[in-house]
Amino acid sequence: GGGGMRGGAGWWVRGRVWRAGGSVQGAWFEARGKGTGHSFSVMRKGPDQYAEAGPYVLAYVELEEGPRVLSNLVDEPEAVEIGQPVEAVIEVGDGGLPILRFRISR
């Protein structure tokens, strides 16, 4: 699906971010894949078929370009802190589709 979010948020789609900026018109731009952990929750148990997936970190990452994206952090939950620099990691999911995740920058 497509669409936008208000308030300058955006969606990541295969290396690009669509930025709405409060209107229904948006612009695509390349994201470098670096950002800052804005907020996070440690999920102890996943939903439905992912019930045994926990614990994992669900986080909002503020990209250097401005938008925030919701993703997973692949690091151990105990290592994650708000404000840490993070970088994108692309993993291959079911059917070969790319999945955007982040890890703490080293």
- End-to-end Cα distance, whole Å, is 34 Å
Low-confidence stretches: 1-12
So how many helices?
0
Described by the principal axes of the CA atoms, the overall outline is globular
Mean pLDDT, to the nearest integer, reads 80
Sequence of strands across the biggest β-sheet: 4-5-6-8-7
- β-strand percent reads over 45%
Helix content: under 10%
Tally of strands = 8
CA-atom Rg in angstroms: 14 Å
What structural category arises from helix and sheet content? mainly beta
- Major sheet: 5 strands, mixed, barrel
Order of helices and strands: EEEEEEEE
Overview of this structure, please?
- The chain has 106 residues and is mainly β.
- The chain is built from no helices and 8 strands.
- It has strands at residues 10-13, 16-19, 27-30, 34-43, 56-63, 68-73, 85-92, 98-104.
- The termini are far apart.
- The model is unreliable at 1-12 (pLDDT under 50).
Helix/strand layout:
Elements: E1 10-13, E2 16-19, E3 27-30, E4 34-43, E5 56-63, E6 68-73, E7 85-92, E8 98-104
Parallel strand pairs: 6-8
Antiparallel strand pairs: 1-2, 2-3, 4-5, 4-7, 5-6, 7-8
Nutshell version of this structure?
The protein has 106 residues and is mainly beta. It is 0% helix and 48% strand.
Labels describing this entry:
single chain, 106 residues, mainly beta, five-stranded mixed barrel, three-stranded antiparallel beta sheet, 8 strands, disordered N terminus
